């Protein structure tokens, strides 16, 4: 089933469920409510109340447990609140007359998007073209409003997810917030900031599962294999759109580093299979880049949240002595004046986001939060060289699973 059909099928199912009581028929023909259906009704009531009252903390709790925000209809109400796009923009319209430096690459990626949509008939071709035009509009709006940002291959996957759930107009606003608050480290001049984020996964594994990290060390496997998971929130790696949307429910609610906690949880969930793999760099990397199709997403979300509570981003940096930049989106997420939520109790703000402070940060040089060497310098030089040499071979072995991540790594300054 295509993503579009899944969306329409889910919407129809939700409508049918919500209106079953209004249809004709005797009581004997009505199905008795099950424990699951009662729990779903209770969750939907809690979600509705949290959305109406703007209760961020309650939405966070619900994003961690059960089925998250349940339906795309609820997501269309909850995501804009969490991303603070439910109020008009403060900034002026984007300057579309000046092409962005990455304009050509964006257009190439858009042409290759929405491949799941059929284009056999003229109407199908027109629909696919419409969706591609919408995607182009969403991406270029972000880049033209914030020309200091750089496009990366994978951001189109994020924007595609937003369009499917929210529609063009709401997706345009949501993409700007995600770019500036959550994916900013991915949208700088090179990939080093996001690779440094991934370095913190090594610290998590050492703390929680040292046997797994020792195995990765012996195989000289660097922590960059989940790059596409982090830069697309698995939109590039999961085929089931319901799982993608469920993961977005969770990741939208927390610090941008949560995707790294999620990656660590996935690795630990596969420890038994992993330790049976031949302790060889290419073999281990190829195994790990494939996001497991049968993963229990609820267990992963629960474990990632537990890791986040146990080792909060700043505490994790201090404990591991792996410091991200002072102006990393991880370290500024809760900074006064840049925080996504204005008030101390994190209630939804009724004022539009002022992106000016973040635009100013984008013009400043990168400075470590604490003095010390780059996180990437902690890895042995020979391991980095081996990783660089093996990238071409790894692409041959696992092109389908590596996709965007491989292309990004091979073009990163660190691997030149």
Automatic annotation (TrEMBL):
Biased composition (Low complexity): 11-27
Presence of the UniProt keyword NAD in the record: no
Transmembrane segments: 391-410
GO molecular function, one term: GTPase activator activity
Name of one Pfam family that matches: RabGAP-TBC
Keywords tagged on the record: GTPase activation, Membrane, Transmembrane, Transmembrane helix
Single GO biological process annotation from the record: endoplasmic reticulum to Golgi vesicle-mediated transport
SMART domains (UniProt xref): TBC
Domain Rab-GAP TBC: start-end pairs: 69-255
Domain of life assignment: Eukaryota
SUPFAM superfamilies (UniProt xref): Ypt/Rab-GAP domain of gyp1p
Name by which UniProt lists this protein: Rab-GAP TBC domain-containing protein
Organism in which the protein naturally occurs: Linnemannia hyalina
